[in-house]
Amino acid sequence: MPNGIHTLEVWGDFACFTRPEMKVERFSYPVITPSAARGIFDAIYWDGIREKNGRESVMKPYFHWQVKRIEVLEMPHFIALRRNEVKDKIPGMQTLNKWMNGDETPEPIWADGGKDELGTDQKGRTQRQTMALKNVRYRITAQIIPKPGFAQNFGKFNNQFERRAKHGKCFQQPYFGCREFPAFFEYVAEEESGKAASFDHHLGFMLYDVFDLRKEAISEKDKPFITLFDAHVRNGKLDVPSFDSTAVKKPEGV
Prior knowledge:
Blueprint: E1 5-15, E2 26-27, H1 34-44, E3 48-53, E4 56-61, E5 63-72, E6 78-86, H2 93-101, H3 115-118, E7 125-146, H4 154-166, E8 184-188, E9 201-209, E10 218-219, E11 227-234, E12 237-239, E13 248-249
Parallel strand pairs: 2-7
Antiparallel strand pairs: 1-7, 1-8, 3-4, 4-10, 5-7, 5-12, 6-7, 9-11, 11-12, 11-13
């Protein structure tokens, strides 16, 4: 792939791409977000190098995925679910490394009961209503954008992804918004793409991503970098602007 463009057909039983304006109950966009689409490509092939920056450990990715187009192959259908969610968060990488190395005893997050039942400082679980999607299928086209200094490996990156995707390999199971909603994938040639669903919808300002894709180093201390774009689905196709485009709304002063 000399231009680094790849296409995947992805599908699954359930999906939830939560709208950020819904603070308590989860309500999905009718279409997968570019952020979730990028996560599927990352799950198949993502590479970088970890370096020490003083006392802090940072990851320097070799490239990032730029989602170019999302095609809706099945009309959106919503389903209401009630799910148990834990309130606690996993600790930082420093603590997790100590657990993995056996230096400290792992402390599980209990998903059953609240603080009174557990007798610990953990917050326990809570029930949330989820308006999710069912029986989703998309065709996603994305492009590898090498970071400065790694352009010489452009061909290698493309070959690695194509080989892994065609053999169904991934570093972790791709998912549709929530990890309990697995996504299945198949590598397809762009010229073999079939017809999208007859779906037209103005989604308004849609979540583009929660990371600054231009950064050359990623730290666990980085704050979320929320970006939005005005999304229009026409004839089942959502054209995604490049991250550097003025069509992508970024935080003030950036």
